[in-house]
Structure formats: C-alpha cells, structure tokens
Fold this protein.
Amino acid sequence: MKTEATRMGQGIQEGVGRNPANTEVRVEADAGAHSWTNAEPNTLMEQVLERPNLMCAYQRVVSNKGAAGVDQMPVTALKGHLQQHWPALRERLLAGDYHPQPVRRVSIPKPQGGERILGIPTVQDRLIQQALHQMLSPMLDPTFSEHSYGFRPGRSAHQAVKAMQRHINDGHRWVVDLDLAQFFDRVNHDVLMSLLARHITDRRILTLIRRYLQAGMLEGGVVNPRQQGAPQGGPLSPLLSNVLLTELDRELEQRGHRFCRYADDCNIYVRSRRAGERTMTSITHFLETRLCLKVNTAKSAVDRPWRRSFLGYSVSWHKQVRLRVAPKSLKTYMAKLRPLLKRSRGQSLTTTIRKLNPVLRGWANYYRLTASKRSVEALDGWIRRRLRLILWQQWKRTRTRARNLIRLGLPEMRAWRSATNGRGPWWNSGASHMNAALPKRVFDRLSLVSLVDTMKRLQSQP
C-alpha cells in the first residue's frame, strides 16, 4: 500500500533528479539525517530539493499537522497543491527567485504571564523550511557548544537539568540566571546572516533564509514588514536561534564558565555572589553590543540556585543538591488541570479520568528526575480531592450522598451524618468521610494515573 508520502512523490518527481554535483548524500526518512562528503560551494540548494529530502520533509509536515497560514491552506491540501505547482516552485527556488508568503500572527499565553507571539507560515513554506532544516542541521550542529541542549538531535532538557545539578554539586553554588527579553522578536538579521555565511556558501540558501526572516506578519488584515526577529512557528526558528546563541556559548567557554543553555534559557554557575555580579554585568554588555540582544533585568538575577528554576526544575539546599519540581511549575500545572476538572462535572468519573491520564503521564515523564516526593504526593492528593469534589457535586441531594457513601463502605450513621453536615463541597471533598469512602485504591481501580507511582516506575527503568 502506498503511503501518503509516496503518493506525494508523484507530484514532486518531475524536475527532481539525481544529485547534479555527484556528491554523496544519505537520507534517512525517519530522522532526516544526512551524511556529507566533498560538498561543492553552490550545490546546497540542489541537495535541499532532492526527492528523498523532500519526501522526508513532507512526512514531517503532515505528521505535525498544524494550523493553516495566511492562505488558509490546510495540511491535507498540500499533496494536491504540490502535484499541480511543484515544477514551477522548484524552478523558482533553484533560480533564487522564490519569495515566501507572510506569516500569520498568533498569540498564546505564557505560563508566567504575558503573551508569546507565533508566526505561522503557510504549509508550502513549512515544507521548504523543513527541507532546509534537514540539510542545514547536520552541517551546523557539530559547530554548536556541548553545553547547548535545546532543539538538537540526541539532546534533551533532562540532560541540561542533570548538568545543572553537576555544576552545583561541584561547588558552583551561585547562579547567574539570564532572561533574554523577547528573544525571538529581537534577533538581528544582519548579525545572524553573517554567522550563517561562515558555514553556508550557496548564496541562494542565504537569500532564502533572509527572505524568511523578513517575511511580513499578517495582523488584522494588514501585513507588517519585519526588520528584526525570527518568529517562532516555523521549522527553521529553533536552528537559527542556536546559530546566534552559539556566539554566547563560545564567549562563556572562552572565559572558563560553567553554564547550561536550552534555547534562550541560559544559567551560568559561579562560586560567589561577587563573581556572579561581575559575570552578569560583562555578559549583559556582550549580549547587547555583540549580538544586539536585550537582557530582561527584571527577571534576571544573581541568586542561590534553590531560589531559582531552570526548565521547570529547582534544587534543594543540601550540600549534594537534589532535583525537585520548581514551586512555580507546580502552580502552573495546577492552573492547567483546573479547567480540565471543571469541565468534567457533567460526565462520568471514568470519562474524566480517561481525559486526564495523558496529561498526568506527560507531566510525570518530564519531572521523573525529581528526588523530592513531598510536592508530588501533595499534587496527587490535590487531584484526587478535585475528583471527590466532582462526585460530591454530582450527587447533589442529601439522600443520594448518604446512599452513595453507604454503598462505598461507610457505616449508615456516619454516612447520614456526613451527608447532612451543612458544609460546602470543597470542605467535604477533603473531609475524612470522603477519603474513607474514596481512598487511593479506588482511583487505582479506575486507572487514574498516580504521579508518585509513575515517577517511581520511570526512575527504576535503566
């Protein structure tokens, strides 16, 4: 049976021949990885447009789904569009005459407050950006710092968090917590393009990337031109951010600093407050003068690491620090769960738990490194209390409440006394009678994911 990507190939195979430079390119469709040997200066665009690379890019774009851009074309219409327009589109790309369409402005709330502005490219531009990313990433990634963990193959947030823990345990118990103000909106195009030109010699690729950076943003029916910034939303943005911030990494390495960077989150670990304050001043000057970026002084600080957070984690104050969930991350997660639980009052508890479980599993998997269980146990208890609250409100009448408490094993006299206590729903959801009637083992039988149990199981795995 033909896959969607194979059928798409019928539309792009015309005009997409073999590698004209006779260079060796190996493409793995599942990972987008490439092996390069003897690449010649002006053949990179041809290799980007090779059929295997495009097939892989198409698979990625289709599997990621995503919203439509300014042309309102959904991902499902991409195959037919390419079958009709690909030969002409390819010729424009090879000639260096292709101009991307504007991006669609979308704002989403940040967990800490405020808004994050996304620029959603059209599906066609997402395909081209993904094809570029698959070729450029293997070229550029080896030039990045070993202390950079964000948006890189084989690297993860967990590795960054473990590196943070090592630096602190090695005696660097002060942190310079840098927060870059609106990083993706302030990327200087000239600085970024000069860095890319060190590694890319095909002028068509450089011109195309600059056009993507300068593509306007559609807001309120008006396209606003862009002189700086690399809006989040396209496949190229994370890679371009690493290219720019590698300059920061090299500066920190040259100075001999211990640090961890994940995208635009960067923490530097030093041995004293005085050293931290000197580092904060000098690195702020470097960022603003060399990279044309701005440090958010209100959110940046020199402080003890157990009073700050990094990628949602914090640490204990012990001599050998242990990882824990940052308090702010717990509050953010509880705020995310509240709407899910509030919308569940008109449905069965089984349905509510089925919708809740994927969210709980994802959280437990991300925070499985934490060694402090107290906050996780408290969160588990809070979730069960919210579910008891839903049941108490669904029961409504005194007689129904008493009958259900008896059915769940409470003595008749205690059940009636509890049902008629006159207290509010939240008080009753945490009272002893509801805990006795609906203990943890009842929720285990209903297949509710226990954060503590799930994290314990994940930690025991190799």
Notes: The radius of gyration is 27 Å. The CA atoms of residues 174 and 273 lie 6 Å apart. The first helix runs from residue 4 to 12. DSSP finds 20 helices and twelve strands in the chain.
